[in-house]
Amino acid sequence: MNEERDLDQYESIMARLEEIVKLLETGRAPLGESLRLYQEAKSLSQRANQLLERAESLMGTPKPQEA
């Protein structure tokens, strides 16, 4: 089922984002590694947003108006 796969993927993304935040918060990663982690987090965040938008469209939930 596609929805289950999306949910699993979303949960995996969120778990990885939490790991990245913890790594960056320590301040121990070299600059190059920190930049790579930031780029990974940005990409994962975009994918998570896509999954949320898809779920909203399947549920018929209207998107909030942007100011």
From TrEMBL:
Q: Name one GO molecular function term.
A: exodeoxyribonuclease VII activity
Per the record, the coiled-coil ranges are 7-61
For this UniProt record, the keywords arranged alphabetically read as follows: Coiled coil, Cytoplasm, Exonuclease, Hydrolase, Nuclease
- Kindly list the GO CC terms recorded for this protein: cytosol; exodeoxyribonuclease VII complex
In this record, what's one Pfam family? Exonuc_VII_S
SUPFAM superfamilies the record matches: XseB-like (SSF116842)
Q: What is its EC number?
A: 3.1.11.6
The reply on keyword Transmembrane is no
Output one GO BP term: DNA catabolic process
Q: Which family does it belong to?
A: Belongs to the XseB family.
**PANTHER family per the UniProt record, alphabetical:** EXODEOXYRIBONUCLEASE 7 SMALL SUBUNIT (PTHR34137)
Instruction: Report the protein name in the record.
Output: Exodeoxyribonuclease VII small subunit
Q: Which organism is it from?
A: Sulfobacillus harzensis
- What is the primary gene name for this protein? xseB
